[in-house]
Structures are given as C-alpha cells and as structure tokens.
Amino acid sequence: MEYRYQRVLLSAGLWLAAAGALAQEPVEVIDPQVDRREIVTPAIDTENFEVGLFVGGLSIQDFSSEWVYGLRGAWHVSEDFFFEASVGTAQADLTSYEKLSGGPPLFKDSERDFTFYDLTVGWNFLPGEIYFSEKRAFKSDLYLVGGVGGTDFLGDTWFTAVAGIGYRLLFNDWIALRLDVRDHIFDRDALGEEELTNNVEWTAGVTFFF
Amino acid sequence: MLRCGLCAAALGLAYLPAAARADDDPAVTSRVVEAYIEMRTQPGRTYPVFYVAERGETIELLKRRTDWIKVRNARGIEGWVHVDEIGRTVDAAGQPLAFAAPDREDFSRRRFEAGFMLGNFDSSDAITAYTGWHFTRNLSIEGAYTENYGDFSDGRMGSLNLVHEMFPHWRYSPFFTVGVGIRETNPRSSLVQTEDRVDNVANVGAGVTIYLTGRLMLRLQYKHHVIMTDRDDDEEAGEWNIGISAFY
C-alpha cells in the first residue's frame, strides 16, 4: 500500500518536473526592438536657499537696547515652510543699578557680549503680492517663526526659545528685503535669582536666494 | 557647481547678473502635450493664473523654487508652473520630463536629510541639529551636534552615527542607531571654579521617522550615552528628542 502511494506521488512529481523543464524552453516569437530611454530630470537651477545679513535693535532685559547684527540662512522646503538658522550679536551696556550706584561693574566687558544662535521653522502664512505700479508686482510673505537655540550672555550659555513674525519682499526672483521681530526667551540666574527674560530683536535685512 | 557659484555670489564675494547665470547651460525646453498648462504670476498656489500655454507650445524651463518652475514661452511670457504639470510635458524625444512634487515614495528613497530636535539630555534642556546621508535605502550616516543646558553645567557634543532603517517604505519608519562622539562639559560660572572637561562618548539608540507631507518629517528618538570620563566611573545619560526635519 505504502509503495503504491510512493509510486503515484513520485510519478506525479516526475511529470511536473518534466512539464516544468519543457515550459522553460525559450520560444522566441518576437524579437523586441524597444529602444529604452532613461528618464532623467533635466538639470535646471534650483533656488531653495536664502542667505543674508540683518541689522537692528535688541532690547536686553535689565539692560538697555543695543544695536544687533548677524547672519541668517534658510532652506525653503516648500512654498509654505522653511528652516532657518540665525546667528547674531550685540554688546550690552551697564544695568540701571550699575549706573545709579556708581560702584564697580557687576560683569566684565567680555561677559556683556550677547550672542545668540538658533534654529527655527518658518511658516509663510500670508503670501501676497505688492503692486508698485501697473506693470510691476513683487512677491511678499508674512511669516511666523518658532524655534530653539542658545544665548551666550553674562558668562554662561542659556537655553533659548525663539518666536517671532517677519515680512519678506522679493524685488526680483533672488533679492529680498526682510523685516523681522523676534523674542528670545530664556531663564537666567546671573543676577541672583532665576528669572524669565524676554529679549526682543527687531531687524531689517537683505537676503539672496540661490 | 552652479550652486556653489551662486552661493559665493550671495555671500557678496562675486556678483553675477541673472542673465550670465542662465548662459552656463543650454536651455531646457519642453512641449505641452496635455490640453493646457497654467502659468501663475508667482511661485505659489494662491497666486493668480495669468496665462495658459496650449497643447503644442514649447516652453523653456528657467529655474525651480520649491515645487514651482519658472518658464518662458516662445513669445517671451514668463510665469510659474507647478512641477506636477511640468512632469506631464515632454522633451524633444517625446519622453515625459521626470518632475514631480516630493511624496512618500521620495521619502523612502531620500538621499539627504537635515533637521533639528528639542529634547531632554540627562534631565536638562537640549537642542540637536543633525544632517544625514543615505548610502543605501536602509543605511545612513549622520552627523549631529547637541547642546544641553543644565543647572550645574552646559554641554556640547558632536557625534557621528550609523542609522539603520528596517522598513524605509513605511510611513512610520523605525530605526536603530549607534554612534561615537566627543563631549565637552562646562560647569556653570556661578559655581566654584571647576575645569571644563572633554570626554569621548558612545551611544546607542532607537526611534521613528514619520513622513508628514511634502519634504517634511517628524522624528522621535531615544539615545543612551556612555560618557568615558577620566574618573573611576563612566557616566551614563539618557536623551529624548523630538524634532522636525526635511529630506532631499
């Protein structure tokens, strides 16, 4: 009985193997003459990066408002969003207490350098066009930014949150005027107790797309 | 090459007028084969359509910004067309142009990515910026820079990491990572003077990259760091991060 099953199964297997071998015989009906082409993306200039300089004022909490200047670079990932890195610096003056008391200064001059650097995400939430004349229209964007960074001030580096609003006006495809207002918010304990400080920066800048 | 040149131009080292830039390469042209394509005044979906190029018209592709391509037709009219529409035009040989807006397929085949993360390093606030290059669909190499701000010390850390994505075609793509780096610890200036320290660091971690839309991704990760100090015991630190990044 067992042998009969084996014989049936083996012969069935043999037939299948033979059929498989026959099916593998190449039968050439048509010789394909298709000229295959690579689909390549044409090399055109992409202009998704924006770099520029800014200058303006920085109001440092417990100190006076000072000139600030720096650099920004952005990567536009879509028409709506961009990633931006900024570096800026200002020099803080004496605090009101130092001026009034007439005593020795509380901080060294080198500690009064206010240097910030941050990474933000920007959202062009109000794109628009400005009509200067009948034939001339410039692209504009009102955008919100938010991000994080560090601030070197009074001898330490402080973890800083950045939030702001800005306006970009493109004079042609690659030169833009920028106006920014940003708050640099950080906790600071350099004057004794820990306090939350708001340091508002308002700047104008020129940027270039490439 | 062109980008490097323009980078230098943008930095004010050398200035090239717009016309000189276009002369470097022969013009890329394409032909409209669908009923029409719409040209807008500016690169954005909210801007008005002011001209419609008809079937059979030849257009010259000038430049791309995000998902928009600036084109010029035979009569010299210039406008912006969405990449998906350009992707349905054909070149001189009748082949469709390989242009499309970035989607999930591009996410799973991404070559380059960069982003930044916010997190917690050993119970202190931390920020990380990173960039990665994918040399296969599963493997990538990443450079990361982290700063953390604690009550007693600040730290800076640079690391080089190998990242393995098991399922790069998933929208929620998990990964494992191992890396090495250098960490500098600076005690707070309000403390009694102690020396800055520089130590070697090794880390192991896992996380998930989530495709959002367009080129954007959300990234969540946990890393466990071993800081090899000069003292008797090595320090260990955990780091949680959430961040946003974009790919190219």
UniProtKB/TrEMBL annotation, chain A:
Keyword Signal attached: yes
InterPro entries: OMP/PagP_B-barrel, OMP_myx_plus_Proteobacteria
Signal peptide (from-to): 1-23
Transmembrane portions of the chain: none
Sorted UniProt keywords: Signal
Annotated Gene3D superfamilies: 2.40.160.20
Highest taxon above the source species: Bacteria
Protein name per UniProt: Outer membrane beta-barrel domain-containing protein
UniProtKB/TrEMBL annotation, chain B:
Protein name: SH3b domain-containing protein
Xref: SUPFAM superfamilies: OMPA-like
Superkingdom of origin: Bacteria
Family annotation (InterPro entries): OMP/PagP_B-barrel, SH3-like_bac-type
Key words, A-Z: Signal
PROSITE patterns assigned: SH3B
Source species of the chain: Mangrovimicrobium sediminis
Pfam family, one: SH3_3
Signal peptide: 1-22
Ranges of residues in domain SH3b: 27-90
